[in-house]
Design brief:
- The structure holds 2 protein chains of 2 kinds.
- Chain A is mainly alpha-helical.
- Chain A is built from 22 helices and no strands.
- Chain A is globular and about 75 Å long.
- Chain B has helices spanning about 5-35, 45-65, 80-115, 130-160.
- In chain B, helix 1 runs antiparallel to helix 2, helix 2 packs parallel to helix 4 and helix 3 (about 80-115) packs antiparallel against helix 4 (about 130-160).
- Chain B is elongated.
- Classes of the chains: A mainly alpha, B mainly alpha.
Chain lengths: ~425, ~160
C-alpha cells in the first residue's frame, strides 16, 4: 500500500472508530500503532508506542496542564466566581440586560484564572442563572449568555488549548497566552454588544434594576482583588520572563489555594475533590496528547501533511480564502467533536499549510482558539450548552442552543477582525522579551 | 470475590497517589522559584517534575476510565437503541483493554531495557526505569478495569 493510501485508510478507520464511541485518545493510538506497523514494521511500531507514551507522560512542558487545571479547579470550588459576579452585578446591574452583561464580565474575569470553557460555564451557571431567574430574565438570554461567556475561558489566558497548541507547534506558550488577551477582551465587549442590541430589540427579555449604592460597589471590589492578584502574578511573571509556564502554573495554583484557605473558602473535602478532578481532567488530556503523538508519527510516514501543504500551495487561492476555508472546516468539525480532539487531529495537517502561506503561528493559534470557542456552543455537541443544561434542568436544550447562537455572530465578527488586523493578537506578544 | 469492586478500590487509591503527585509537583516547583530568588535553586527540579508527571497520568488512568472521563464522540452513538449502546460498550472495553494490555507489556519491556542499560537522569543521576514501570502498572490497571467491563458486557449480552 502506498503511504498516502495507507494514510487515507487510517483517517477513515479513525473516524469510524471515533463514531463507535471509542475514546478519542485510544482511537488515535490504535490507528497510529496499526498504521505505523503496516507502513514501517510491527516491531518498530511497538517500540514507538512505548517510547511515545513515556515521553509524553514524563514531559516537563506538559506538566503545565495539571497545574493550571488545579488552579482552575480550586478557583471553581472556592466560590471565587460568586464574588466576581457579585461585583459585576453591582456595577452593571442597572443597565438594561445588566445581569447578562455582568455575567459576561464575571466570565471574562474568571477566565483569567481558569483555562477551560466548561469549568467557566459550569461555575457561572451555578452563580448567575439563579439570580437572572429570580429577576425574571428570559431563559433564552440567561442560559445563552452563560454558555457563550464560558467560551472566553480558553481565549483569555491561562488556556489549555493554547498550551496544547504551543506544545504541538513548538510555539512559546507565554506568547500565545499574551496573544489571547486583547482578542479575549474585545470578544467580551462584542458579547456585551450582543446583549445590548438584543435587549433593545426585545426589552421584554429582562427587567431593569435600581442603581446599587456606591458604598456597596466599592465594598464588592474586595472580591475581585484576589483574581486580579493571581492574574497579575501568573501572567505578569510569564510576560516579564521570570517564570516558565510550568512555574507560572505552580505559583498560580499555590496562590489560589493559599488565598482560598486564608478566606476559609476551601474546606479539606473540597480541596480533595479539586485534586481528584484535576487528576481526572489532566489524565484525559494527556491520553489524548499521547494518542495524537503516536498518530502524528504515523501521519509523518504517510507524507500526507507535506502533500496537503504542497497541494494547497499549488491551488493558488488567495491566502485569506484558504484561512476562511480552514475556519469553516473547524466550525463543521466543532459541531461534531470535542475541541481538544479536533485540534490534535487537524494541527498536523493545517499548521504546515498556514505557515507555508506566511501566516504567523501565534496568530493562527488565536484564530484556532477563537473558532474552537464557537464549537463549544454549536449543536449537536456544543459541550458548554450541555454543561449549562446540567444546571438549568428546567430549560430545554434547544432554548439554550438558540440563546447561545446569538453570540456566535460576535465570535464570527471577532474572527474577521483578527484576519483583517492580525496585530490585535500579535501586538502584546511582540512587547515580550 | 467481587472483582469489579476490588478493582474500583485499587483505582481509587491509585488516583489518590496521582493527586499527591500533583501537590508535590506544585510545591517543588514553587519552592524552586522562591529559592531561586535567593540564588538557591533546587537542583534537578526539572527532571523530578517530569517524573512526577508520569505518576500523575499513569496512576489516574484507571479512575478516569471508571468515571467515564476519557473523551469520546457520542454524537452518533447516543441516537442508537439501548441494545446498540450495550454493544458499543463492549467494543470500547475490548479495544481499550487490548490497547492498554499492549501498552503495559511494551512499557514493561521498555522499563527493563532502561534498567539493563542503566539509564539515569542528567542532573541527579536518578534511575529512570522505575517511572517506566509505573506507566506499565498504570496501563495494566486500566487494562484490568476494562477487562472487568468487558466481562460484564458479555454477561449482559447473553442474557435473553
Amino acid at each position: 500500500m502506498s503511504p498516502v493510501a495507507a494514510g487515507i485508510a487510517g483517517f477513515v478507520l479513525l473516524v469510524l472508530l471515533m463514531f463507535l464511541r471509542i475514546p478519542v485518545g485510544f482511537t488515535m493510538a490504535i490507528v497510529g500503532l496499526a498504521g505505523f506497523g503496516v507502513l514501517v514494521s510491527w516491531e518498530a511500531a511497538l517500540h514507538l508506542l512505548a517510547r511515545d507514551i513515556f515521553s509524553v507522560f514524563s514531559s516537563y512542558n506538559l506538566t503545565v496542564i495539571p497545574l493550571f487545571v488545579l488552579m482552575g479547579q480550586v478557583a471553581f470550588h472556592s466560590g471565587i466566581s460568586g464574588r466576581l459576579f457579585n461585583a459585576a452585578h453591582l456595577f452593571l446591574g442597572h443597565f438594561r440586560g445588566g445581569l447578562a452583561i455582568a455575567t459576561i464580565g464575571a466570565c471574562a474575569a474568571f477566565s483569567a484564572i481558569c483555562g477551560s470553557t466548561t469549568a467557566t460555564a459550569a461555575t457561572m451557571s451555578s452563580v448567575a442563572l439563579p439570580e437572572m431567574k429570580k429577576r425574571g430574565y428570559d431563559p433564552t438570554l440567561a442560559t445563552g449568555v452563560v454558555a457563550a461567556g464560558g467560551s472566553l475561558g480558553i481565549l483569555i489566558p491561562p488556556s489549555t488549548i493554547f498550551i496544547i497548541y504551543g506544545i504541538m507547534t513548538e510555539q512559546s506558550i507565554g506568547k500565545l497566552f499574551m496573544a489571547g488577551v486583547l482578542p479575549g477582551v474585545l470578544l467580551s465587549l462584542l458579547f456585551v454588544l450582543v446583549v445590548v442590541v438584543w435587549t433593545a430589540v426585545r426589552p421584554d427579555l429582562c427587567q431593569k434594576e435600581e442603581r446599587a449604592p456606591l458604598r456597596g460597589m466599592i465594598a464588592s471590589l474586595a472580591g475581585v482583588i484576589e483574581t486580579f492578584i493571581l492574574f497579575v502574578l501568573v501572567m505578569g511573571g510569564l510576560f516579564v520572563g521570570i517564570f516558565t509556564p510550568t512555574e507560572a502554573a505552580a505559583i498560580g495554583a499555590l496562590g489560589t489555594i493559599l488565598i482560598a484557605a486564608a478566606g476559609k473558602n476551601i474546606p479539606l473535602r473540597k480541596f480533595m475533590l479539586s485534586l481528584q478532578e484535576t487528576a481526572r481532567i489532566s489524565c484525559m488530556i494527556m491520553v489524548i496528547v499521547a494518542g495524537a503523538t503516536v498518530f502524528g508519527h504515523f501521519l509523518a510516514v504517510t507524507t500526507i501533511p507535506m502533500e496537503v501543504g504542497g497541494w494547497v500551495a499549488r491551488l493558488a487561492l488567495p491566502p485569506p480564502l484558504i484561512i476562511g476555508l480552514i475556519i469553516l472546516t473547524y466550525l463543521l468539525l466543532g459541531c461534531l467533536m470535542d475541541s481538544l480532539a479536533m485540534i490534535m487531529l487537524t494541527i498536523p495537517i493545517f499548521y504546515p499549510v498556514v505557515t507555508t502561506l506566511g501566516y504567523d503561528p501565534v496568530w493562527f493559534g488565536v484564530v484556532i482558539v477563537l473558532v474552537t470557542g464557537m464549537g463549544v456552543i454549536t449543536p449537536p455537541v456544543g459541550i458548554n450548552v450541555y454543561v449549562v443544561a446540567g444546571v438549568a434542568k428546567d430549560v430545554p436544550l434547544q432554548t439554550i442552543f438558540r440563546g447561545a447562537s446569538r453570540f456566535l455572530l460576535a465570535q464570527l465578527i471577532m474572527a474577521v477582525l483578527l484576519i483583517l488586523f492580525p496585530s490585535l493578537a500579535l501586538w502584546l506578544p511582540a512587547l515580550m522579551g | 470475590m467481587n472483582w469489579s469492586r476490588s478493582f474500583r478500590r485499587i483505582t481509587l487509591y491509585a488516583s489518590h497517589v496521582a493527586g499527591a503527585a500533583i501537590v508535590a509537583m506544585m510545591l517543588l516547583t514553587s519552592a524552586d522559584v522562591l529559592l531561586r530568588l535567593f540564588r538557591y535553586p533546587i537542583p534537578g527540579t526539572y527532571e523530578i517534575i517530569g517524573f512526577l508527571g508520569t505518576v500523575v497520568t499513569a496512576f489516574a488512568l484507571g479512575q478516569t476510565s471508571v468515571e467515564k472521563g476519557h473523551i469520546a464522540v457520542e454524537f452518533l452513538s447516543s441516537r442508537l437503541p439501548l441494545k446498540g449502546q450495550l454493544y458499543l460498550d463492549g467494543l470500547e472495553a475490548m479495544a481499550g483493554a487490548s490497547l492498554f494490555g499492549i501498552l503495559a507489556w511494551q512499557s514493561a519491556v521498555y522499563a527493563e531495557d532502561l534498567r539493563r542499560s542503566g539509564e539515569v537522569s542528567l542532573t541527579l543521576a536518578m534511575p529512570i526505569h522505575p517511572f517506566a514501570w509505573g506507566i506499565a502498572v498504570g496501563c495494566a490497571l486500566l487494562c484490568a478495569v476494562l477487562m472487568v467491563d468487558f466481562a460484564r458486557f458479555c454477561r449482559r449480552a447473553v442474557r435473553p
